[in-house]
């Protein structure tokens, strides 16, 4: 169905004084009615220690303990889960795109990719992944950089940088701690001549990625608004984040393929 | 470590052996009194080394062709495994030269007035729709402004993917990453440079590097292409007041087993920022708006 760009439809809101104001700020979930939503389940079996939903456009954070596995479910498909990681005990050590890429000698994130810190140490490892490749080149959108990409008329649409700053503030962190990030479910190919950009995604409703914490990790997510990029049909959808304490090795570990097969067979 | 340079011998006893070797034998005991010690120290002044800052900058023996030496504000040859840093006025031209083909200039840029505004490599690749920095490529901050632009480039071998080396990387690859050791990491040197401006590791984002190229192959493999040879240069225009941090260390993907890095020449001279009348100002819609944002900031600041 046709959808309108987020935030362009005025909403009447009651005020404390008893009147109403017409607002263009979206309230709550803003995905199009009738959007296919597949809430999925953890990619790795284990005892669930956290299971939360992130509304479209909203930020989220949690500490994932060593050995626990975080599954991110792309509930509506082709959402971008912009993601930053911090050593929970020393947040000045944080996710590093170049270290992650240089250590593995490859520009894309796939199963087996070790997500490394600014000190070169492992923070998390991708243990299962249901899209071809995940992005960590494209960075986050922001009010300011969006003006370069789309024009100054988008200045008052918020973006991931706003979400990161808000969530960081709740964790005692700030603008100095915001660096280049991961974009789960986003597709940013690099062409032979160096041309690169965010293009149509390879994800679908219910596709998942699972990352295991190699140390206690603070995970920050911005459920990307993607308000100006057609790759998500201007239709931001929710994310589901599930943290499990995995079953002991050999007892319940299931590959992505096995889980998906079981799910499709159900 | 292995260092390379144009004309002088490769030092055998540490990074600074050539640059700071005393001019006379040190077997005489010349510090038996304060006056003797003073004479001894003063006698060491005025020497030249293979890598050193040239002061005043106009005294540089390597003033770039076509540049008025009197306009130089920074002239330095950065040692292999060395670092440097400088605050530059808006409009300054900044040139890096790779005389040996083995320099690797790892660079971080900050708005000198508000260092929380700093180089954002993701925006620097994403906004111009181009991963490989080259002529007219803007080096963008995360605040939608042009910190600097590439105004000349005879190398074409640069990298925005791999950042610089960490201690963990150099310990694994070379067995040593101490900043005072034979194979310091780029991050270790950035930390020192940052500390001298009151900044810490929280303030270090991913960096760019010049002179050792990397290309992404179709499967995503990051292929090291190395340098374009000896004698290339790259020039930047400071479009905002800049704090520049530079570490001259081996590229992370350099496949050579030794810590191979050559001297890096740095020159900067007074100039004007890119203005509305210049083709670069409106070269692309993204660059145009980035310049509009930059000019807006600078006008309001009285710069």
Concise overview:
With 266 residues, chain A is α+β, with helices and mostly antiparallel strands. Chain A is built from four helices and twelve strands; from the N terminus they run E-E-E-E-E-E-H-E-E-H-H-E-E-E-E-H. In chain A, strands 3-12-5-10-8-7 form a six-stranded antiparallel beta sheet. A four-stranded antiparallel beta sheet of chain A has the order 4-11-6-9, covered by helices on one side. A two-stranded antiparallel ribbon of chain A has the order 1-2.
Protein described:
The complex is a heterodimer of chains A (266) and B (303). Chain A has 266 residues and is of the alpha+beta class. Chain A has one domain (41-249). Chain A is built from four helices and twelve strands, in the order ββββββαββααββββα. Chain A has helices at residues 97-104, 143-150, 160-170, 256-265; strands at residues 11-14, 20-23, 46-54, 59-64, 69-74, 81-87, 114-116, 122-129, 182-184, 207-213, 217-223, 239-246. In chain A, the strands form three sheets. In chain A, strands 3-12-5-10-8-7 form a six-stranded antiparallel beta sheet. Chain A has a four-stranded antiparallel beta sheet with strand order 4-11-6-9, covered by helices on one side. In chain A, strands 1-2 form a two-stranded antiparallel sheet. The radius of gyration of chain A is 18 Å and the shape is globular. Chain A starts with 10 loop residues before the first strand and ends with a helix. With 303 residues, chain B is α+β, with helices and mostly antiparallel strands. Helices cover 17% and strands 25% of the residues of chain B. Chain B contains five helices and 15 strands. Chain B has helices at residues 34-42, 121-126, 167-174, 186-195, 285-301; strands at residues 2-3, 72-78, 82-88, 93-98, 105-111, 138-140, 146-153, 158-159, 208-210, 213-216, 222-226, 232-238, 242-248, 260-261, 264-269. In chain B, a hairpin with a 5-residue loop joins strand 6 and strand 7. Chain B starts with a strand and ends with a helix. At the A-B interface, helix 1 and helix 2 of A face helix 2, helix 3 and helix 5 of B.
